[in-house]
Amino acid sequence: ALGKGSDLEKAFATAALVYNNSADPEGKLSKAETKSLLQTQFGGFIQGQENKPKYQEIISALDEESENKIDFEDFMILSVSLTLMSDLLQEIKNVKTTK
């Protein structure tokens, strides 16, 4: 559907597709499923973040026993939060591309 889309559009479409392939019929993930999805699909961004207080706060919230499920909006907020604190983000900022 986004064959001619921009790189950013394709990135967000991929995030939505990955999320939707893991979500239940209501379009939600349990907190445990969310944690697992982040660990398997977002490992490059979360690697080495274990000692950061914000990372620990996010993961602790996902570890809590709760009936609450995560929707796509909350998943994207978690993803952006993890990206912003990631050491990988600084490496990405240092990459210069030419077109």
TrEMBL record:
Q: Give one GO term, molecular function aspect.
A: transition metal ion binding
Matching entries from InterPro entries are given as: EF-hand-dom_pair, S-100_dom, S100_Ca-bd_sub
Domain called S100/CaBP-9k-type calcium binding subdomain: residue spans: 8-47
**UniProt cross-references to CDD domains, sorted A to Z:** S-100
Cross-referenced Pfam families: S_100
**SMART domains in the cross-refs:** S_100 (SM01394)
Q: What is this protein called?
A: SNTAN protein
The gene from which this protein is expressed is Sntn
